[in-house]
Amino acid sequence: MERMESEFQEAVNRVSLLALANAYQPGKQALGDYAGKVDCEGSKRFTGSIDLDSALKSSYPDSPRWDYGLGLQTSGQEIAVWVEVHPAHTSNVREVLNKLDWLKGWLQSQANALWRLTVRNRGRRYFWLATKGVHIRPGTPQARQLSRAGLELPREWIVFR
Amino acid sequence: MGDTKTLRVQNLGPIQEAEVVFGDLTVLVGPQASGKSIFMQLLKVLLDYGPIREEFKRFGIDWQKRWENFLELYFGEGMSEIYRESAEEQGAESEIREGAERPAGTLIQWNQSVIRLSELLTRRIREQEEQMFYIPAQRVLALRDGLTRPFTDYRAGDPFVVREFAEKIHQLVQSEFATKEELFPQERRLKSEYREILNQHIFAGFGLRTEMERFQRRLVLKSPTGRSLSFLVWSAGQREFVPLLLGLYWLIPPTKKSRRGRVEWVAIEELEMGLHPVAISAVMVLVLELLHRGYRVVLSTHSPHILDVVWALQIMQSHQGRPANVLRMFSLPSTGPLRELAEDALKKTYRVYYFRRDGKVVDITGLNPGAPSEDEAGWGGLTEFSGKVGDIIAEVVRQAESQEALGGENGK
Fold this sequence. Notes:
The structure holds two protein chains of two kinds.
Chain A: H1 7-13, E1 38-40, E2 45-51, H2 52-55, E3 68-73, E4 78-89, H3 93-110, H4 112-119, E5 126-135, H5 141-148, E6 158-160
Parallel strand pairs in A: 1-6, 4-5
Antiparallel strand pairs in A: 2-3, 3-4
Chain B: E1 5-12, E2 15-22, E3 25-29, H1 36-58, H2 67-74, H3 85-90, E4 107-110, E5 113-114, H4 117-122, E6 132-135, E7 143-144, E8 147-148, H5 160-176, E9 182-184, H6 192-203, E10 207-213, E11 216-222, E12 228-229, H7 236-251, E13 265-269, H8 277-292, E14 296-300, H9 304-318, H10 323-329, H11 336-345, E15 350-355, E16 361-363, H12 374-377, H13 384-406
Parallel strand pairs in B: 3-14, 3-15, 6-13, 13-14
Antiparallel strand pairs in B: 1-2, 1-4, 4-5, 7-8, 9-10, 10-11, 11-12, 15-16
Helix pairs in contact in B: 5-7, 6-8, 8-11, 10-11
C-alpha cells in the first residue's frame, strides 16, 4: 500500500517552483550535518524536511535565504518549523532578522500551504541554531530585537518537547 | 597570579556546599542572604587571623577565649550560629572525602588543609600584616556627614570588616591626606585617564575636598563654581563611590610600588552600588588596574554589567582578542599604560560562582548564554528575568502573526 504523504510533504509539493520539486527529504535528513543538533522527544516526530537555502539558490541568488524547514507531528496536528544555522554573535542579529523577513515573505507569497502549517502552530516556529557558541545574552538590545520579531535567543541544540 | 587557591566550605550559614577555585578575578553572584558575604569574610579571616586578632587587642576587645564570642565580634552580632560546633570536634580530613556522608557541622578546607576556626584563635601569629583589603557593602557607613569614623566609633556587634574599612579610611583622610585639601582629582593618585573617566561619569566636574571642622577633616564636594556641597546633598552614587575611591587610594600607592604593604587580595562587595552602568564600567577599569598591579580580586555583585565585562574578556581570550578591543569596550584611549593594562587583562584568569538559594554554590565561569545549565545560561539569575521577558514577547508576537494569518478560523 502506498504510504500517505505527510501534510508537510504535501505542502512542499504544492509550491509551484521546479526548484523545490525534489527538495523534500524524509525525517530531518535535509539538515545534513546539523541533523544531530535537532531532536524531538515524547510523541513528537519529524515528518520531513527541506534544505530551502540550497533549493532556492538559483531562483533567489541574492536574497537572504533561510536554511531549513521541518515538518513536525505534534499531538493533534502537524506543523512546520524553520531552522537557521548561523553564527550567533550580536553582529549577526541583523542578518538573521533579514533572513526571517525574507522567509515570511516567501512563505506568504510563494508557499501558502507551508505558511498555514507554520502559523497554525501558536508556539515556537523559528529557530536559530548557533554555530560556535551563543554570544548574545538576554537583556541586550539585540536580544530584544529578536523577541520583537518572534524569534528567541539562538541555541546550540534544539529539542522539540 | 601563580598558584591555585581553593576554598571549600560545607554547612556555613546558608552555604551547604561550596568549592571555589579563585582566579585573578573571582566574581560571586546570587540572591540576597545566599552566603556571598559570609564566604568572603571567611576568606579574610583565614588569610588575616593574625592581624584581626591584633586589631581587636589594640582596641581592648576581648572575646574571652570563646570562639562563639569571636564570631559575634568578627561576623557581627547574631552571626555565631552560622558556624556549627560539632565540626570543631569532628572536623577530620576523612569527612570531606568524595561520597562521604555530609557531616552535620561546618567544614572549611583552605587549599589542602582542613581549618578549625577555634584553632585560628589560639594559633601562634606568624603574620602581622594583612593580606586582604576588604571593602564592604556597608562602606557608605564609613562616613557620617562627610566625617570619617574610627574603629571605636562602632558598636562591638558591627561586623569587623565594616569597622576595619572605616578605620583605614579614617587613617587615610586624617593622617595621609592631613596636609592636602584636594582628594579628587589629585595629580599623584590614579592615572590621568582614570581621573578623566571618573570625573566624567561619577564626579561630573565636582572635586572632592576636605575642610577642617572641629579639628577633623570633613569631606565635601566642590562645584566647578567653588561652592561646597555637604555629604547629604551628594548623589546616592557619589556617596557610595567616595568610600570606594578612598579604598582604591589605599590600595594604589602614589609611589612606584605596585601594591600596599603585603596586601595581595582585595574583596569588594557590590561594587556597583548606587552607580549608573556607565559608571560601573569606569570602576571596572580600576578593578583591571588592581589586577594589573598583581592583586587577586574577589567581587560580589548583583550587576549583569560586571558579568558582561568578564564574559567579554573571556571571549576575547579565546578568540585572540587584542588590547585595542579591551580599550574600545571601555571607551579608553590607546595610550601606552592603558595598552599594557589591557594586554594584562587578556592574560588574567576569571572565575564566576553562583550562590544558589538552596545552599549549593555552582561554577558558572563559562557564562555561556546557550549553556544547557540554566544556572550558567541565566548568569546565576542575573539575566533570567530579561530572558523570560524576551521569551514572552516573542510568544506574543508569534500569536499576533498567527491571528493575522488565520483570522478566526482556529478559534482562540
